Structures are given as structure tokens and as C-alpha cells.
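Worked Example 4.2. Consider the chain below.
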Amino acid sequence: MAGSERTKMAAGEWYTCLDAELEALRVIARDAVFEHNSVPPRQRGNVGPALKSLLGAAGEGARIEAPFHCAYGFNIFLGEGTFLNAACTILDTAAVHIGKRTLLGPNVQIYCAEHHKEAAGRQAGLEIGRPVEIGDNVWIGGSAIILGGVSIGEGAIIGAGAVVTRDVPANTTVVGNPARPVKRG
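Applying the procedure from the previous section yields the following C-alpha cells:
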């Protein structure tokens, strides 16, 4: 497909992240994240003003503790009452939807970007963004890693330190690396 690298990224196609437009968007996100992480909590509120205006959506009562990091911000959609604890990182090269009343422990990482398998492709900055969908009332333990293309069903529990590489059904508990079910229903 012809078009800008941002258009390719949004379409879920291979694009180069070494693009001036994408870098300009990352600079905007870094500035918003810096403000969020630097403003005293009582002044910042649940989400810093610049970050809140950058996010795709932030439902009522959604809260992001500092420090926080994201790649673009506009691909992040938070449901009402969602809570991201300190040091969460979301590399949102694709849409990341986090449902209502979902809790992310400290240091949770969500990686949408998949880099090219060949060295020459990586050197050219080629990557593809894979979306992440997290349902309502999910609990994700500290330092868990969620990879792109994963869907986590409503009410699921992701154990601390788990590496989630495939979909997790609703009301299922997974632990380990790679994450495996230990309890359903």
C-alpha cells in the first residue's frame, strides 16, 4: 500500500518507525508523558492534562500513576475506573483498549510493536503494530508483559511476571512465561 508510514502503521501493515512524522508524534507523546510524570499528584489529578488530551479515550475515574511511558498515546483507550500503577509502559503502535475497572500492577508492559525478523529489516526500522484488547474487570499483576495481538477476556487474572503471548479467555487465571492457564471460571 502506498501512503505515509503513519497510514501504514494505522492499517496494521509493515512501516518504518524511522519516519519524521512518526518521530514528531513520539515527541508530542514524550512531552505529555513528561508533564504527567513531573506535575505534583495533587495538581495532576488522575491523568496529566496534556496526556489526557492525547489519549484516544480516558473514561471517568481512569487513573495513571507516575511514572508512565507510552509511544504515541492516541492509540490508548481506557475504560472508566481503570487503574495503571506506577511504571507502566504501553508501546501503542496499534490500538490498546483497556476495559472498565481493570487494574494494572506496577511495571506492567504492553508491547504492540513487532520488529522485522531479518536484520536488514530491523536496521531499516521496519515494524508492524498488533492491537491489544483487555476486557472489563481484569487484574494484571506487577511486571507482567502483554504482547501485541493478544486479547484478554473479562474478569481474567494475569499473574505477576507473566508473559502473555496468546489470548486469555474470560475468567481465566494465567501465570508464567509463557503464560499458561491455572484456573478457569
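The first strand starts at residue 15 and ends at 16. Residues 5-184 form a domain with the UDP N-Acetylglucosamine Acyltransferase; domain 1 fold (CATH 2.160.10.10). Compare this with Example 4.1 before moving on.
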